[in-house]
Write a structure and sequence with these properties.
Rossmann fold, five-stranded parallel β-sheet, 5 strands, binds flavin mononucleotide
Length: 169
């Protein structure tokens, strides 16, 4: 299975990165895992120009580093959104990427994309409601992907649970 992990943290060795490492160490080697550190990329917000849904035929008019993610999304089977919580939501850098999914995943995601999961890290507990709400509404609800869990760093078993989910794939 092709798995794409989008890391929304700017910190190379932060808590989100540790969750991703746990996943990578536990996942079977037959899977291909790509991790994109979105904060190292030049990815602008959606322009709402609707070019993608009109003459663009699903292609975004903005030619920035999002093109790398669009290319990966074409055959991604599992998408993992990993982010620190900033003011009750995911990081702004990852939010820009998700808004740019407008051309590639909406109104319909590629057939191959079936599963998703979310890794969230916050300073205080119970700060994830905003991030969970949009993930559940869009990725589980609207796109109908199979949710493989939401993992948060204030759950005492979160690393074990991530490793178990990874190994189960
Ligand atoms: C700009 C900014 C905003 C933050 N906002 C919150 C917040 O609203 N609630 C919270 O619990 N932690 C907040 N934090 C703390 C981070 O969510 C926390 O340190 C997280 O574990 C960092 O993950 P990372 O190490 O993967 O970058 C914020 C940190 C920054 C830099």
């Amino acid at each position: 299975m092709k798995i794409l992990i989008l890391n929304g943290s700017p910190r190379p060795d932060g808590n989100t990165a540790a969750m991703i490492r746990t996943f990578q160490n536990a996942v079977k080697p037959e899977h291909e895992v790509n991790v994109i550190r979105v904060c190292r990329k030049n990815i602008r917000g959606c322009l709402a120009c609707e070019y993608c849904h009109n003459q663009g035929n699903g292609e975004c008019i903005q030619k920035d580093d999002m093109q790398e993610i669009y290319a990966l999304l074409k055959d991604t089977e599992m998408l993992i959104l990993a982010s620190p919580i900033y003011y009750h939501g995911i990081s702004g850098q990852l939010k820009c990427v998700i808004d740019r999914f407008y051309s590639a995943l909406y109104p319909k995601a590629p057939e191959c994309l079936k599963k998703t999961a979310m890794f969230l890290s916050s300073g205080d507990p119970d700060m994830e409601a905003g991030a969970k709400f949009s993930y559940e509404g869009d990725f589980l609800g609207y796109l109908g992907l199979e949710g493989m869990g939401i993992y948060t760093n204030h759950d005492p078993d979160y690393m074990k649970n991530i490793a178990e989910m990874a190994a189960s794939l």
